[in-house]
Amino acid sequence: MAKCLLKQEIRTTCHPINKPVFSALEALQQPSLSTQRPIISGPKNSISKLVEEINNWLGNDTKMIRNKAGDSVFLSKDETRRVRFDFNRPNPHNNSHMHLEEIINNKWNKSGQIYPVDVPHN
Questions:
Q1: Does the chain have fewer CB atoms within 10 Å around its N or its C terminus?
Q2: How far is the C-alpha of 20 from the C-alpha of 74, rounded, in Å?
């Protein structure tokens, strides 16, 4: 596996996106500690569809890193798009969520929190 050097000078191992995203999403089907419910519920094919959509949006040669909390962040090859999961430390919010982010005019444009439908949005 190749090494990546990020702007924050953090070294991490790069991964092809399919397996890490699928593993991260499969983990979300386990009960969370705070709610005792799965973060994502529904058939496996809906998770596969989400993985496919993330792959399409980020493009080929996507890299995976872990933030300081140990959550997965997936970056496009040119590092202008990212999918960030806030599961281990959702602060300042109370519940696990994710973000879709894109650089526009040299600033990260955030989607806002994206929560599973059966999780309180706070």
A1: N
A2: 9
